[in-house]
Write a structure and sequence with these properties.
The chain is built from 11 helices and 12 strands. It has about 350 residues and is an alpha/beta fold. Bound molecules: pyridoxal-5'-phosphate (PLP).
Length: about 350
């Protein structure tokens, strides 16, 4: 607290990301980062542009990147918005599209940044309880609302919804914006981007932090009707007209062009996830079915607290949310085969000493 702060700042409760410890020999499975590096082409593109031209402002509308993304999803560039990480893209969507007189609907157990944005922008929200099996029931969202947002797959459950139920929601809900946050869609889901040309109120948000291994570059994008995108552009151009620098734009374009690397690394993570699920089950864990690059699991007789502490002592960090209904779960990011093996051997040592 400081006497120099405004009343508004004094009452904010900011988002707390997974910790980023400053220790090099730690196995970091707590922030859903990609264990494989970015595409070598993306690294080369950034190196090539690390020169005197950085004195210039970047291209104002990142048109080349928008075109690349549009081509990738069968859209036109007026249907694409880019920002400094998908958190920034989401912030603009909350402010510009989801702040309405009626309440915004989202799941009670979901990405914990959503309630923070609601507080930041003064948005009234209604949190819809997940079902007993931690799935989202979109039937619950077919009610009067000022907007709807959910991640697909959801976080931290990892559970995926099919495009059929999302389309049913869109059919029933045409008066407000529906945002599908697809941070993890490349790990086994089908993108709702395919529905954009049919529903003017659909916004699909992606990040390059997870499946494209560029968390450190902060690149996110949204796809939707030109009408929704123009709304986001109006906010962006009233806030920070240059959210992406030259290096980010070049890295993102190169990453999209290197399809093989993208597919191979995603497949590797998906395979590891399936193995990890089986091995955790053998250790006595209940593991929710995941379509993401993490699993959400609870043990039959060991508390999440005990397991998280034991893992930490073994140099492995995972995410433990001390929140009602999920306090006995650990969210474990899928790492390299070696990291996963270390996680499993450490857990085995804690559970079966
Ligand atoms: C990681 C994550 C984001 C944010 O990604 P950035 O692009 O790194 O800001 C957004 N939504 C969900 C559900 C995420 O898990």
């Amino acid at each position: 607290m400081s006497k120099y702060w405004s009343d508004f700042v004094s009452q904010l409760e900011p988002y707390v990301p997974g910790e980023q410890p400053n220790i090099s020999n730690i196995t970091k499975l707590n922030a859903n980062e990609n264990p494989y590096g970015p595409s070598p082409d993306a690294l080369a593109a950034m190196q090539q542009l690390s020169n005197d031209d950085l004195r210039l402002y970047p291209p104002m509308n990142a048109d080349d990147l928008k075109q690349t993304i549009a081509d990738n999803f069968g859209l036109v560039k007026e249907q694409v918005f880019v920002g400094n990480g998908s958190d920034e893209v989401l912030a603009h969507a909350f402010n510009g599209l989801l702040k309405q007189s009626k309440p915004l609907l989202f799941p009670d157990i979901t990405y914990s940044f959503y309630p923070v944005f609601c507080q930041l922008y003064g948005i009234e929200c209604q949190q819809m309880p997940l079902a007993e099996d931690f799935s989202i029931n979109l039937e619950d969202y077919k009610r009067d609302n000022g907007g709807i947002i959910f991640p697909n797959p959801n976080a931290p459950s990892g559970r995926l919804l099919g495009l059929d139920v999302i389309e049913q929601l869109l059919q029933a809900n045409q008066e407000s914006v529906v945002v599908v946050d697809e941070a993890y869609i490349d790990f086994g889901g089908e993108s709702a981007a395919a529905l954009i040309n049919s529903y003017a109120n659909l916004l699909v948000v992606h990040t390059m932090s997870k499946s494209r291994s560029l968390a450190g570059m902060r690149i996110g994008y949204a796809m939707g009707s030109a009408e929704l995108i123009e709304g986001l552009e109006r906010i962006k151009n009233s806030f920070n007209p240059f959210p992406l620098g030259q290096l980010q734009i070049a890295a993102a374009i190169a990453s999209f062009k290197d399809r093989d690397y993208f597919q191979q690394t995603c497949e590797r993570i998906i395979n590891s996830r399936e193995q990890m699920t089986e091995q955790l089950q053998r250790l006595g864990f209940e593991v929710l079915p995941s379509a993401a690059n993490f699993v959400f699991a609870r043990h039959a007789d060991r508390s999440a607290e005990e397991l998280a502490l034991g893992l930490r002592e073994a140099g492995v960090i995972v995410r433990h949310f001390k929140k009602p209904r999920i306090e006995e779960f650990l969210r474990i990011t899928i790492g390299t085969e070696q990291q996963n093996a270390l996680l499993l051997s450490s857990l085995t040592a804690i559970i079966k000493p």
